């Protein structure tokens, strides 16, 4: 799968093209990665008056930020109870509030910068099996105990008015929603540039190093094939696509392949299938997630993989899963089919950290990155500006290191996915 197969790319129209770095430049902050995290940080810092340079190996939104399911969720991918165990009641509540603020930040930026990205409210979490129903109700009660009042429970019968498919129950979250992620990424980029940030595409970072006092001041030198940036701070915001720029023992995540198909425009059938037009996510460990596009396509995602999936087998599997949810689509194929890497951590909490005194990183959103990545970028920016409270709070979460070596990582991912499939088959 490649970015060129994406319906998001096909529906973008003409996007701005940016030069690659071919000079030696200076900045207050150098950001690696022009996805949600890096663009959010760049926008925040540029609006604060700092000189910001963003280096992107491909194009704006090329990675997971421009390929994901477009679903907006408050919270982390792990449950709140895990954060309570990690951080204590008070600090776990602060983390929850940060995730709510992340959703608010996204909506505010869409409105303030007039970003045309098909943003709408409403996301359904649905129970596949009877054993999921009490788990769903407990999740709702837990969030309501935190003061969250956007949730409504629907039993099997009333759920049909929102989603015409065979689930046991569902909870509608009007605090969540969905959007066109690539359009949103490009909107953030234009907003950051309007605030004064510079973004260079096709500018893969080959390496970086801290400068000594003898080398014209303490700072960071970042190298690409044809240029350099000297900055006081470096933000590593490439998530699953950072490669070797972050030491293996600091990544704390493994990339998992996830895939999305887009049907033809379905016309009136689209609203018959999802009368609420809400985004939907199920409760399996290896989830199906789907939503309707503005032109009435069904965007259907899932099919986690430890390796690159074979296109023909992937298409057949995805069609089968879609037909399992919507039998009326049994004869439908996908006009577009694409994939990308999701950075998954073992505990499903994100990874925040520092390298030395001048380099920050944030990653491992575990499928929850549409709103969370934007907040991560803002927290990195706030840290540069002198307020590290939110960043340091999330940096306290503990993560198991990931073993080095691609073959071993692939084997571990395959075993983990097999275990998840066994869990889902119960």
From TrEMBL:
InterPro entries tied to this protein: FAD-dep_OxRdtase, FAD/NAD-bd_sf
Residue ranges of every copy of the FAD dependent oxidoreductase domain listed in the record: 28-382
Gene3D superfamilies to which the protein is assigned, alphabetical: D-Amino Acid Oxidase, subunit A, domain 2, FAD/NAD(P)-binding domain
Gene Ontology terms: cellular component: cytoplasm
Name of the protein: FAD dependent oxidoreductase domain-containing protein
Species this protein is from: marine sediment metagenome
């Amino acid at each position: 799968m490649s970015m060129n197969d994406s319906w998001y790319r096909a529906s973008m129209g003409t996007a701005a093209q940016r030069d690659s770095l071919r000079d030696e430049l200076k900045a207050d902050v150098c950001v690696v990665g022009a996805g949600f995290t890096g663009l959010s940080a760049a926008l925040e810092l540029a609006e604060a008056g700092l000189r910001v340079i963003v280096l992107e190996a491909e194009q704006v939104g090329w990675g997971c930020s421009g390929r994901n399911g477009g679903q907006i969720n408050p919270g982390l991918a792990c449950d709140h109870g895990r954060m309570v165990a990690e951080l204590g009641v008070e600090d776990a509540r602060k983390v929850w509030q940060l995730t709510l603020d992340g959703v608010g930040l996204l909506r505010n930026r869409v409105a303030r910068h007039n970003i045309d990205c098909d943003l709408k409210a409403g996301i359904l979490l649905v129970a596949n099996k009877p054993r999921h129903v009490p788990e769903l109700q407990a999740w709702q009660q837990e969030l309501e105990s935190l003061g969250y009042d956007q949730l409504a429970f629907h039993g099997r019968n009333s759920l049909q008015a929102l989603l015409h498919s065979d689930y046991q129950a569902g909870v509608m979250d009007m605090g969540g929603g969905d959007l066109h992620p690539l359009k949103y990424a490009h909107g953030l980029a234009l907003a950051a540039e309007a605030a004064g940030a510079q973004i260079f595409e096709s500018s893969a970072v080959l390496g970086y190093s801290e400068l000594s006092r003898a080398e014209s001041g303490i700072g960071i030198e970042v190298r690409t094939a044809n240029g350099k940036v000297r900055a006081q701070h470096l933000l590593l915001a490439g998530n699953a696509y950072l490669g070797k720029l972050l030491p293996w023992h600091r990544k704390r995540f493994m990339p998992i392949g996830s895939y999305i198909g887009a049907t033809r425009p379905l016309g009136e059938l689209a609203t018959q299938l999802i009368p609420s037009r809400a985004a939907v996510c199920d409760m399996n460990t290896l989830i199906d997630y789907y939503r309707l596009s503005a032109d009435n396509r069904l965007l259907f995602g899932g099919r986690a993989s430890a390796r690159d999936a074979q296109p023909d087998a992937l298409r057949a599997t995805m069609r089968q899963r879609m037909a399992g949810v919507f039998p009326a689509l049994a004869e439908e194929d996908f006009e577009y089919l694409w994939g990308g890497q999701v950075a998954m951590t073992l505990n499903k909490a994100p990874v925040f950290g520092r390298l030395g005194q001048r380099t920050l990183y944030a990653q491992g959103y575990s499928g929850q990155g549409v709103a969370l990545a934007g907040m991560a970028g803002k927290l990195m920016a706030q840290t540069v500006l002198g307020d590290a409270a939110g960043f340091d709070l999330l940096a306290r979460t503990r993560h198991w290191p990931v073993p080095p070596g691609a073959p071993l990582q692939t084997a571990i991912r395959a075993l983990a996915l097999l275990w998840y499939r066994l869990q889902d088959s119960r």
